[in-house]
Amino acid sequence: MNIKHQVTKYLSLILIFFFVFTPSVSKGYLGEFTIKDEAKLGEKFKKLIRTRFPIIEDPEVKNYVQKIVQRLERNMPPQLFPITVDVVNNNNMNAFATVAGYMVIFSGLILGMEHESEVAAVLAHELAHISQRHVAKNIERSQLIGLGTLLGVLAGVFIGSKAGGDALVVGSLAGAKSAFLKYSRDDEREADQVGLNFLMAAGFNPQGMVSAFEKIRKKKWLSGGGNIPSYLSTHPGIEERIGYLQERVNRLKKRVDLPAYSDKEFYRVQTLLRARYTDPASALKFFQEKALDECLRGLGKAIALSRLNRIKEAEAAFIKVLKCGSKDPLFLREAGRFYYAYGQLEQAALYLQKAVLLNPKDLMALFFYARVLAEKGDFDTASIYLRKVLKYIPEDAEVHEHLARVLGQKGDRFAAHLHLAYANLYKNNKRQTRFHQKKIKSLARTDAQKKKVKDFEKAYKERAEFW
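RE: above sequence
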């Protein structure tokens, strides 16, 4: 091998290493929008979503969505960022993927579908946008400068100017440049095709992508386009996309048998979302009229009745439901929540403890069990359990608030005010946040406490940016 050939070989290896492994350069193209920039923008956008929308932290819902995403992700090529997903409590049929592997799905999308494969299809489509790095590439081409401007444009594209906040859209520049960040026809076609591949590889029925898009189209007609993603309602060609996807599925049907629908867990999550997170009167009417699995139907009715304060009817419904779900941790948890809400602590403790033992990952059951223990005066165990819950959902205002009460009962004033500060921070209550911030500064004595004050001030600064 001559010297010239060796030099060429080593230069090629250096260039390959630079493009593939150097973290400061976006993979696949050179430019100003680096991997570090994308990570920062992703974190800011996530904080924006969590400031503007109620996030569903219920593990029954959250883990279900994550399970679908992980099943799809196993069939994706290696990604620059880990895939993370938040479930937003909102009736709109919406889902989107932005930068740094961050995805959002609205509860309305889950409720608006008939099969698990349809939800998986929408998520597969969004994962394809991530895999093909459509947003990052569009940002690079747009030549927008500054994370603040980029954040405002992303907010306008994905969640609308109202949800994004006018203050985030920096002048006419962001508005004029937002067109660069919207998916093109080619982006959507590629996401359809790649997403369908992910869907089939994960073992979902590919017909789900066609029927999901048909439902989105129908929702657009019925609502005037106001309750579906803005980028879908304005982007042309959805009829064409449904057509070529159906053609591909038809060709596939001729070669292989399509996977059967598997919707048991999907219906379970739908029942919980409808009963717990939508209008209770409408939910009750739905469960009274729709032909569902008898146990799920009964659970939905019981939860809706309890939310309507129809206590005797709710208790009768829960007693009936527990006969067919006496070993189901979700049924036990919801019964425990009901008895806790109406002051029957012994019954609540019995059902919630069983739920935790059957499903240790159900942080909602553990949260309510800790509250029962606190009501019964066991503050030490209650604080241990509440801290365990916060380890996994550190931005839950309600958990911080109840931990603060328990710590106050134990006489730890600094820790109580600290968690009240976090509770109000995550509730976007600026006045109360500042009040408790002043308290913790005045109460901090040890180095550990002073560090916690600094940690809180950092969290406050990051969150307050979106107020």
